[in-house]
Amino acid sequence: MNPHRTLATARRVLLQLRSDPRTVAMLLLVPCLLIVLLKYAFDGRPEVFDSLGAPLLGIFPMIVMFLVTAVATLRERTTGTLERLLTMPLGRMDLLLGYALAFGLVALVQGVLAFGLTVGVLGLSVTGPSWALLAVAVADGLLGMALGLFVSAFAATEFQAVQFMPAFLLPQLLLCGLFTPRDTMADWLHAISDVLPLSYAVDAMNRITSQSGFSGALAVDLAVVLGCTLLALALGAATLRRRTA
After folding, report:
1. Is 111 within a domain?
2. How many domains does the chain fold into?
3. For a FRET experiment, which of 17, 26, 84, 188 has its CA 20 to 30 Å from that of 37?
4. How far apart are CA 24 and CA 243, in angstroms?
5. How far apart are CA 219 and CA 132, in angstroms?
6. Domain residues for 18?
């Protein structure tokens, strides 16, 4: 891995994003818009917003980052950009880490905006440390980015990349504990949910809104989310193809 090449890749991706304001708006504003809709959809039942607001503060950015990253990476391959880049002295990990750094900065800004809106403006009740809520929200965005980079290797078209969302994310959404506690699920479903990273992201958010302080269980949840992010990046580098056949 070469830090100079990694930073050069990150700079190139950020410049591309700057020239595409619609993508930037989707990345930064769509999660905020969805949280506002959630707030006012349950305006007469604030307890529902307090229970769902924190988990969805992580889930919405994760979904948006997954979609944008998967499509952007696939476009690089189908247009031949990736093939040209890899003919230069640029390793796969340099390329993936450059993407991760660029989209990671976007995830940080995205998380700060969504956090400030949810807690500062919409008044989400938080028992635990606010900084932990922000950290988990940003970690969820990074996870979505890493998963998007990984699954892009298995898609041949942008339409196929979008199809990975219901196949890859919706099962996690159903089993993460958002709709029903995981310990009330059938044993085999509970066992599956135990290996899904989104389960730990939702658990972390629920701990922050219900428990004071930064507990060891919360640290484990956050570590699992970050560990899955690194694993997805490593798998993405291993499966990255120069071009789509």
Report:
1. yes
2. 1
3. 17
4. 26
5. 9
6. 3-239
Distances (CA, A) of 172 to 36, 121, 127: 23, 29, 26
The answer as to whether 193 is a domain residue is yes
Distance in angstroms between the alpha carbons of the first and the last residue of the chain: 27
* 118's tokens: 């949810």
Residue predicted with more confidence, 222 or 130: 222
- In tens, the pLDDT along 117-170 reads 998 899 888 888 888 888 999 999 999 988 988 888 787 777 777 888 888 889
Percentages helix, strand, coil for the chain, rounded to the nearest 5? Answer: 80, 0, 20
Tens of pLDDT, residue by residue over 2-37, are: 777 788 888 888 888 888 888 888 889 999 999 999
* CA diameter of the chain: 59
Q: What is the pTM of this model?
A: 0.87
Provide long-range contacts, Cβ within 8 A and 24+ apart, for 192-195.
none
Specify if 245 maps to a domain: no
Instruction: Name the region of 123 (left: φ>0; alpha: ψ -120 to 50; beta: rest).
Output: left
Question: Around Cβ 232, how many Cβ atoms within 10 Å?
Answer: 23
Residue 171 domain flag:
yes
Residue 241 has pLDDT above 70, yes or no: no
